[in-house]
């Protein structure tokens, strides 16, 4: 019996490992006295899109360079499809690198080569015959919507088209993992949306695992299944995108979300005081069915006072409603704000009393 349990456990562990394309365990990397990565641990499952977001200098670039073997971690494990790359020689790394595709912020296309030649270049380096590599290049150009640009040169392409060529090139060797290093940062918003839609489509069609490095929450919101927030070389928050957007735990996450979540208008925020005023201003964060239900009608029925909606809205992320509202609660009853907070919290809302509006009549 013990043997059977042991065998079953081993099989379960093996199956779990096969579902993981990437596993990092306590990865550290220093440059002199600066700690670029300070104990990073995370996993990326097969077919998943994981967004890693952080400010400049947070450790994102070092992390991606460690993942493709361009940087060596000082300690910890980096497993790609179950194989620890930290133990491999440069020679042994070469075949593993072919399992990792890479797309860059500035495209990195060769200006003297045509689009099809740029896409086929990795296969030429591998030694494939010209006919084979051009056939594969044409298949991928069809996939990214550039079949008619095969004979064009990069100088004649738009930024979005150049990035599509970069994506096609990254897929030539049929990688298990695609790394995206700020791949949309140089693009305008409309082109960014089209590139993200393309990556999502490729993820669906090929079951490709994608790890996105970015400083833009809009990119994470538009494509990722999960998000990991990196700050000072550490993962400070991780979870499903909708959940993190609805209820950010780390201060840095809230800051990064500031541009795309509703914020209290400045002319109101600027006059808030800690001293009691005519109204208490509360922020209310909700996700799931409550975010689009009759919550405020129920609140008014339970606590019959003239609540006022100041600002806010509802978004949908990964098919989940995510809402943020700011409400004003009359302050003539000092205990009312606490009762409102208790009522909303009991219904899975996250509530914060931001202060008192002393100027509202």
UniProtKB/TrEMBL annotation:
<dbReference type="GO" id="GO:0005524">
    <property type="term" value="F:ATP binding"/>
</dbReference>
<dbReference type="Pfam" id="PF00005">
    <property type="entry name" value="ABC_tran"/>
</dbReference>
<dbReference type="GO" id="GO:0005886">
    <property type="term" value="C:plasma membrane"/>
</dbReference>
<dbReference type="InterPro" id="IPR003439">
    <property type="entry name" value="ABC_transporter-like_ATP-bd"/>
</dbReference>
<dbReference type="InterPro" id="IPR003593">
    <property type="entry name" value="AAA+_ATPase"/>
</dbReference>
<dbReference type="Pfam" id="PF09383">
    <property type="entry name" value="NIL"/>
</dbReference>
<keyword id="KW-1003">Cell membrane</keyword>
<keyword id="KW-0029">Amino-acid transport</keyword>
<dbReference type="InterPro" id="IPR027417">
    <property type="entry name" value="P-loop_NTPase"/>
</dbReference>
<keyword id="KW-0813">Transport</keyword>
<protein>
    <recommendedName>
        <fullName>Cell division ATP-binding protein FtsE</fullName>
    </recommendedName>
</protein>
<comment type="function">
    <text>Part of the ABC transporter FtsEX involved in cellular division. Important for assembly or stability of the septal ring.</text>
</comment>
<dbReference type="InterPro" id="IPR050086">
    <property type="entry name" value="MetN_ABC_transporter-like"/>
</dbReference>
<dbReference type="InterPro" id="IPR017871">
    <property type="entry name" value="ABC_transporter-like_CS"/>
</dbReference>
<keyword id="KW-1278">Translocase</keyword>
<comment type="similarity">
    <text>Belongs to the ABC transporter superfamily.</text>
</comment>
<dbReference type="GO" id="GO:0006865">
    <property type="term" value="P:amino acid transport"/>
</dbReference>
<dbReference type="InterPro" id="IPR045865">
    <property type="entry name" value="ACT-like_dom_sf"/>
</dbReference>
<dbReference type="InterPro" id="IPR018449">
    <property type="entry name" value="NIL_domain"/>
</dbReference>
<feature type="domain" description="ABC transporter">
    <location>
        <begin position="22"/>
        <end position="257"/>
    </location>
</feature>
<keyword id="KW-0547">Nucleotide-binding</keyword>
<dbReference type="GO" id="GO:0016887">
    <property type="term" value="F:ATP hydrolysis activity"/>
</dbReference>
<keyword id="KW-0067">ATP-binding</keyword>
<keyword id="KW-0472">Membrane</keyword>
<dbReference type="InterPro" id="IPR041701">
    <property type="entry name" value="MetN_ABC"/>
</dbReference>
